[in-house]
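Task: sequence design from structure.
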């Protein structure tokens, strides 16, 4: 396996290769996996993945990112689809705590950034309450990553001076954008986890002040070889999505900046999944995919 340099923090402690402590406890690395393209991972994220004893990952972590994990490392899939399986969060916390108490270095790998609609704070609270050490590695959140790969700048001096990130679902699993008006001039809206309710979202945005002619785009499987971008307005997007077979995850971008995609689009999916990145995987791991995988019931 190719070794990367070791980096020290300001105290001189090796924050990347330090594992268990004098008590025999391990440590949890809360790592942002980004939106899909493994080349968007930080160097620190790659190193921690390489030294982990076990990787606990979500459904939104791409195969190409998982392929960076050594083949002898156990992988535990804890994929949950938000409100459909909320009870799994407690089980995920228990797995991390149990593995760390066994002296293992646990990589908790989450799509995007763990602190942006990723429940990272909830998981760290559970670890802190259990006395487990942890580190956090930020990731490229879907909003910035997918927008960049779609050729849609979230801010622009002539079109948008602010941007707002919104999750389309509440803790109880219902579509709820609140009551605050969302028609702020010069603002871009980015809605996470809204692909399955595009029609309702577009209606709700109009109810909250957005004009039906407002440009909107949905980016599906952004930054990967399967990326697709569907454009329209709040009035036309639902029918365009319905006419197209799209998978998940999907991200909605609402605002005048969507018009800039016509000139700034630079990346389109190849239709080959994550095939564009085998060289990176081979260079960092020396092995192809095929790691041990365990699913949580």
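Answer:
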């Amino acid at each position: 396996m190719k070794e990367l340099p070791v980096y020290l923090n300001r105290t001189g402690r090796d924050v990347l290769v330090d594992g268990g402590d004098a008590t025999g406890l391990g440590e949890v690395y809360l790592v942002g996996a980004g939106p899909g393209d493994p080349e968007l991972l930080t160097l620190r994220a790659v190193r921690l993945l390489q030294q982990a004893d076990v990787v606990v990952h979500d459904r939104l972590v791409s195969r190409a990112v998982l392929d960076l994990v050594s083949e002898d490392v156990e992988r535990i899939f804890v994929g949950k689809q938000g409100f459909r399986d909320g009870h799994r969060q407690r089980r995920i916390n228990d797995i991390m705590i149990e593995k760390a108490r066994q002296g293992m270095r646990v990589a908790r790998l989450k799509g995007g950034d763990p602190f942006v609609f990723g429940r990272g704070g909830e998981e760290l609270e559970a670890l802190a309450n259990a006395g487990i050490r942890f580190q956090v590695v930020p990731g490229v959140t879907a909003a910035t990553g997918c927008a960049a790969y779609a050729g849609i700048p979230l801010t622009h001096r002539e079109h948008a001076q602010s941007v707002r990130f919104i999750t389309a679902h509440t803790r109880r699993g219902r579509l709820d954008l609140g009551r605050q008006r969302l028609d702020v001039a010069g603002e871009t809206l980015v809605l996470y986890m809204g692909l399955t309710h595009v029609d309702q979202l577009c209606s709700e945005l109009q109810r909250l002040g957005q004009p039906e002619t407002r440009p909107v785009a949905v980016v599906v499987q952004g930054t990967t070889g399967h990326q697709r971008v569907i454009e329209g307005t709040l009035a036309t997007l639902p029918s365009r999505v319905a006419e197209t077979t799209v998978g998940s995850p999907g991200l909605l971008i609402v605002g005048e900046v969507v018009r800039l995609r016509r000139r700034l689009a630079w990346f389109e999916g190849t239709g080959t999944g994550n095939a564009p990145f085998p060289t990176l995987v081979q260079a960092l791991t020396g092995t192809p995919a095929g790691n041990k995988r365990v699913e949580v019931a």
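Residues 5 and 224 are 28 Å apart (CA to CA).
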